[in-house]
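REQUEST FORM: STRUCTURE PREDICTION
Request ID: SP-0412
Submitted by: Lab K.M.
Chain count: 1
Length (residues): 146
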Amino acid sequence: MKFNWGTGIFLFLALFLAGSAVFIVFAVRQPVNLVHKNYYEKGVDHTEQMNVNARSKPFARLFDVNLNNEALVINIQNELATKIDSGNMQLYRPSDYTKDIRHEILAGNSLIQFPKTELITGRYILKFTWYTNGLRYEIDRPVNIQ
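STATUS: Completed
RESULT:
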């Protein structure tokens, strides 16, 4: 068989299509970690989120985050704990959403603990969300587990 320009074009196209197919199979098998499952709907409510952040800013220093040998302990000062009707704390893991941990907060509860056995080493974002008189408040704080 003689190698001419027609054979070269055919080989180039065949290799290009095979490479494209391999890349498509590779891309489809990759996990997709979105920040939020309803990412686009959350973006529409950006003005509301700005209002929540502005309302929450005065309360940012009213809770402490400490890591000891047994747990990650969040201590909410009484000034804030008495105002909470309901809420939750979420340890959001940006690198893998399956490692997120959520804890519900009851009214008047001022001490929240996340056992260290449930945590893995790395970066989390503590998302503290609560409701007072029907208004939503939210504070995010980075947490590093070592």
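NOTES: Residues 5-28 form the longest helix (24 residues).
Reviewed by: T.R.
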